[in-house]
Amino acid sequence: MPDKYFDVDGIATLVHHRGDTTLPGSPPSFEEGQPILLLHDAGVNGNTFGDLMDLLVLTNSPVSFDLPGHGRSGSLDSLGSVEAMAAHVESLISPWEISALVVVADGLGAAVGFELAANGHVDVSDLICCGAVGPAVDLQEELHDLGEITSGKARRQFDTSGYAPDPDEKMMRKAFSHWVTTDPRATLGARQAQSDWNNRVDLSRPVCPTVVVVGEHTEERHKGSSYQFAESIADGAVVTMPEVGRHPAQESPAAFCAMVEETISTRRKDQ
Question: Domain span at residue 96?
Fold first, then answer.
């Protein structure tokens, strides 16, 4: 998979892309179909969308990256706020001069995507969210557990929750590999930033059409927060996906890809 680094405000940021390779320092190619930016959750990296990107590239131009402190991007720590993360994205992609950008975002990435769309500095045409999203998500238990881990009081353990029953073993091995590359201190900082954003965000700000994806096997508490998130956005809607849990882009990349392409097609017809 083509990867390249960009210096963003002094932080080496690793970008994952598909399609034609380009010269070092030059933007990825966006000549094919729709430009799609994928924003990962806290504690993982941009490669978590790898299988999905392999399908999207057949008719589109997908790109993801590792947030600061995550994966192989620079900085030991996460950025301190969701707004700072959105500003980092803007600094990264603004020179690429992309229009009508579709943003696919998981967990924390959905908060970043919302800020990116609401700011209006980047032309975001659609926001597609999945995972544990919206300000109603209760992060206190996870923050406590991360605090115990980073202070040496508990051992770090891979979270296997949120998947449909009997998850594919190969998929779970990939999920583990995406998780293990990020220091729990960065995950703690990112989750704290998400929790702070949850407490102050104003969802009445105008943003682009937003789809919130809810998997059939998502835990009830997360289903509730996802529906509430969609209902709080002026142009929000829920799409349900069968046979998956809270990680639909990883559990069923083909079905998720079809849903993304249907969203893009519907928007074009409505224009």
Answer: 3-270
CB 42 within 8 A of CB 71: no
pLDDT tens for each residue of the chain, 271 residues long = 589 999 999 999 999 999 888 888 899 999 999 999 999 999 999 999 999 999 999 999 999 999 999 999 999 999 999 999 999 999 999 999 999 999 999 999 999 999 999 999 999 999 999 999 999 999 999 999 999 999 999 999 999 999 999 999 999 999 999 999 999 999 999 999 999 999 999 999 999 999 999 999 999 999 999 999 999 999 999 999 999 999 999 999 999 999 999 999 987 777 6
Number of independent structural domains in the chain: 1
Question: 124: domain CATH number?
Answer: 3.40.50.1820
Q: Containing H/E element for 15?
A: strand 11-17
> How many angstroms separate the CA atoms of 220 and 138, rounded?
13
At residue 233, what is the residue type? I
Instruction: Choose among 52, 149, 154, 31: nearest CA to 96.
Output: 31
